[in-house]
Backbone:
């Protein structure tokens, strides 16, 4: 009986119902006053609500004077002389794929890959023209993946602890979607361990740039929902709030875009991130 009720609730005809409303267009007029923030972007800034807005698929931040990189040349220049470590899962893998596909000089390093590597990595791309190296790999358990050797699952904290850091070093991570079926206390404990490793890295090498990608909306699955994701995201923000790092508020950037809800947002959103 319980299984029948669950199956009914998960049917598309019973969930994700579009609420009808007024479809009138909103015409945004040109303004003489500058509404975007004039604050220089730097680690440690508080994320306001709203954090920004879209206009013609271009994100304008209200947190700081963020820059856009509409061309491969500008992206390559931003990444010049950087060694970037990305850790998370598929939503951050989208960032890696976007950079590798958008910058012509960014070359993906082909290696003989067992089947499980195609899901958890590590993946590597280099740009010899800008002296850039990017590595992406999945975070440690819990993670939903195919049969994988234990040794290939690296924890974020352990990887961060092994970094020397420096002005050339960038660490980007995200962690939430694979924890929605676990108690919040377990997730918080993992974040505290990561926080300790990040704080240690920034203490020994303050010029290291650490970036956290927040949770994003669009999680509609038997394993999770935006409600569960939101609870984890609030815990993440609270635990890391006093460290000098950058939080990319993807929650707001995905919730206010017109594209259909999807845990993996379309390329037009990835481009703005």
Residues:
């Amino acid at each position: 009986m319980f299984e029948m009720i669950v199956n009914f609730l998960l049917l598309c005809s019973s969930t994700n119902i579009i609420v009808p409303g007024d479809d009138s267009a909103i015409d945004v007029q040109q303004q003489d006053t500058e509404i975007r923030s004039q604050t220089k972007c730097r680690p440690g800034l508080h994320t306001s609500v709203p954090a920004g807005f879209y206009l013609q698929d271009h994100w304008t931040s209200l947190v700081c004077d963020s820059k856009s990189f509409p061309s491969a040349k500008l992206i390559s220049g931003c990444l010049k002389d950087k060694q970037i470590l990305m850790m998370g899962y598929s939503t951050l893998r989208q960032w890696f794929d976007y950079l590798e596909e958008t910058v012509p000089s960014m070359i993906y390093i082909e290696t003989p890959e067992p089947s499980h590597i195609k899901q958890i990595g590590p993946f590597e791309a280099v740009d010899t023209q800008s002296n850039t190296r990017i590595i992406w790999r999945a975070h440690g358990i819990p993670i939903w993946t195919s049969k994988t050797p234990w040794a290939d699952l690296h924890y974020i904290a352990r990887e961060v602890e092994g970094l020397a850091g420096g002005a050339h070093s960038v660490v980007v991570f995200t962690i939430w979607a694979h924890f929605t079926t676990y108690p919040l206390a377990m997730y918080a404990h993992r974040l505290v361990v990561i926080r300790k490793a990040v704080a240690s890295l920034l203490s020994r090498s303050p010029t290291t740039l650490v970036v956290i990608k927040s949770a994003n909306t669009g999680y509609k699955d038997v394993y999770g929902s935006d409600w569960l994701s939101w609870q984890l995201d609030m815990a993440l923000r609270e635990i890391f709030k006093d460290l000098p790092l950058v939080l990319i508020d993807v929650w707001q950037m995905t919730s206010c875009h017109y594209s259909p809800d999807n845990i993996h947002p379309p390329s037009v959103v990835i481009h703005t991130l």
